[in-house]
C-alpha cells in the first residue's frame, strides 16, 4: 500500500509505572491521525488508572492523582480509541512500551488488541545512525523540533509524528513508497538497504 494513502495514528501513553506486568496502568493517552502528511484528527485525555501513582512517575510526567481523579477510565475511552485507530498504521516512539500497555488495558476490558501494523520511530532512528542519542527529546532537539511539554502524551505524540514524517521525506528520496518497503528500515541499517536498491 502506498504510504501517501495510509492513515498513520501516531500515539503516546503516560503511565503509572514502567510495565503492565508490574501493575502499571495508562494515565494519559494521545493520538494524532494523519494522511499524506496532513493531520485529520487529534484526541487526548487523561485516564483514571484506578490506582495511586508513585511519586517517581509523577516527577517524570507531572500527572498527579488529583488530575486523574475525575478523568474517564480506559474502558470509557475504548470506543473512541477503536474508532480513531480503525484502518490505521500505529506510529510511536519506543512503540513496544505503548503497545504492551494498550494490550494490557484492552485485555482488562475483555478485548483483544487488534493486529495493527506498527512503526517505531525509535527503531528507525537507531537504524538510521543519524543521531547522537535516540530518545525522543534529543532527536527532536537535533531536528529543530520544539521539545516543549516532553513527557506529556500529546507533546510526545506530536514530536514523534514530526520525526516520522522527517524519516518518510528522506526515505522517499530513495524510492521508499510503500509500507512493505518502509518496514525493513526498522530492522536493518539504512545505508545497507539503500545501497542494495
Largest sheet: 5 strands, mixed
Number of helices: 9
The radius of gyration computed from the alpha-carbon positions, rounded to a whole number of angstroms, is 17 Å
The CATH class name reads Alpha Beta
CA(first)-CA(last) distance? 19 Å
Name the helix and strand elements from N-terminus to C-terminus, one letter apiece: EEEHHHEHEHHHHH
Rounded mean pLDDT is 95
Could you give me the name of the CATH homologous superfamily? Ribonuclease H-like superfamily/Ribonuclease H
CATH architecture: 2-Layer Sandwich
| Overall number of strands | 5
Mass-distribution shape: globular
Structural class: alpha/beta
Tell me the strand order in the biggest sheet: 3-2-1-4-5
Provide the CATH topology.
Nucleotidyltransferase, domain 5
- Structurally, the number of domains stands at 1
Strand content: 15-25%
Q: Could you list the spans in which at least 5 consecutive residues all have pLDDT below 50? A: none
Helical content stands at 40-55%
Can you tell me about this structure?
The protein is of the alpha/beta class. 42% of the residues lie in helices and 18% in strands. It has a single domain, classed as Ribonuclease H-like superfamily/Ribonuclease H (Nucleotidyltransferase, domain 5), CATH 3.30.420. The protein has nine helices and five strands. Strands 3-2-1-4-5 form a five-stranded mixed β-sheet. β4 (88-92), α4 and β5 form a beta-alpha-beta unit.
Q: What attributes characterize this protein structure?
A:
5 strands, 18% strand, 197 residues, alpha/beta, 5-stranded mixed beta sheet, Nucleotidyltransferase, domain 5
Amino acid at each position: 500500500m502506498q504510504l501517501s494513502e495510509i492513515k498513520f495514528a501516531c500515539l503516546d501513553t503516560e503511565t503509572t509505572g514502567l510495565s503492565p506486568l508490574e501493575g502499571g496502568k495508562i494515565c494519559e493517552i494521545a493520538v494524532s491521525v494523519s494522511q499524506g502528511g496532513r493531520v485529520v484528527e487529534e484526541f487526548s485525555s487523561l485516564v483514571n488508572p484506578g490506582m495511586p501513582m508513585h511519586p517517581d512517575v509523577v516527577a517524570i510526567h507531572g500527572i498527579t492523582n488529583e488530575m486523574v481523579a475525575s478523568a474517564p477510565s480506559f474502558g470509557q475511552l475504548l470506543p473512541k480509541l477503536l474508532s480513531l485507530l480503525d484502518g490505521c498504521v500505529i506510529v510511536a516512539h519506543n512503540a513496544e512500551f505503548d503497545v504492551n500497555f494498550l494490550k494490557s488495558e484492552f485485555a482488562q476490558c475483555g478485548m483483544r488488541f487488534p493486529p495493527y501494523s506498527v512503526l517505531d520511530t525509535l527503531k528507525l532512528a537507531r537504524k538510521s545512525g543519524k543521531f547522537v542519542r535516540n530518545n525522543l527529546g534529543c532527536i527532536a532537539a537535533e531536528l529543530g523540533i520544539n521539545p516543549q511539554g516532553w513527557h506529556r502524551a500529546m507533546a510526545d505524540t506530536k514530536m514523534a509524528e514530526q520525526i516520522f514524517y522527517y524519516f518518510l521525506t528522506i526515505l522517499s528520496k530513495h524510492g521508499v513508497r510503500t509500507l512493505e518497503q518502509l518496514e525493513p528500515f526498522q530492522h536493518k541499517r539504512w545505508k545497507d538497504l539503500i545501497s542494495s536498491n
